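Section 5.1 Outputs to date
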Amino acid sequence: MDKVVVFRVDASVEMGLGHLTRCLTLANALAGREVRSYFLMRSHAAGLRHMVARAGHAVRLLPDPAEPAPEPGDHALPHAHWLPTTRQKDAEQTCSALAEIGRVEWLIVDHYALDIRWERACRRDGLRILVIDDLADRDHDCEMLLDQNLIFQMEVRYRDRVPAACVQLLGPGYALLRPEFAEQRALLTPRNGEISRILICFGGSDPTNETAKALTAIAILATSQLAVDVVIGPSNPNRDSVHALCQQMPNVALHPSASNIAELMRGADLSIGAGGVMNWERCCLGLPVLALDIAKNQVPSLTRLAKEGALVHLGSAASVSADDIAAAVKALAADRARTRRLGEVAATLVDGDGAERVCRAIFP
């Protein structure tokens, strides 16, 4: 393999696993084109390095300071606290790693705490930079930008944020989904709008335990007609309590760190979950959704998807109760036509081939 790319990405309970997951998906797709990937992650993410190594990619940990020394307030970005050090120090460590690796074609950065200053500090001859972003809240110095979200006015939101020559890959047609989603999509049979199996999944961490809230909603419905699959990720801090709650309820199966999430989505009639990367996974499989936003950056895409008729956005998780979720499930169960339409609209938005489209853009 003579082509090399380097990913700069982190993951944690606060950040979730979405950034790392989509970078892994892209790295795996690039491996099929004989491209070798290195992952640069801060040492606080060391517990997740096995996810990268298991996929066959190299991992280098950037050492964290003994005491957090974040960016001074005057120059801090909204997500600056995601770094335990300054952007300049992170850039220096990244440059050192790049020098050790040798010739690198692309530096791919997926990190809300890094911006144009970091990217300029990492510049070197022959290196191109791809930024993966969702926020459009900071400037970038990059040859290519990927935002896989569906947002109002998405065509112009980066106009003044990137160089004029920057290639912009915008929209869910570029959604970075693992191959199993396209595989399961090919096996999909049309849903009739009846709700007999529900999938509950709030991503890799779920620090506020929305999973338990959704399970409480199912209990409120007090019906024996529902089967429930519950997926929790490896960073979930409420693992034990969720497990105990599942054991108390009939027809509920817990899937810790499930490797068959695409299959579970195909088998479900409705999903209760958050926004983020899961938006596009569920769309690919035409799965109707009751969605709660668990972070501000999830709101624009959920709002647009709700406007398109691809899901029901219940609002901020902090303001949505178990009773609210139960009422929403009951309403959809009573309106099969609406439930069916939600899935049909969602399926038109994502076809599962986004990673290949991005690969072709990076290495034509």
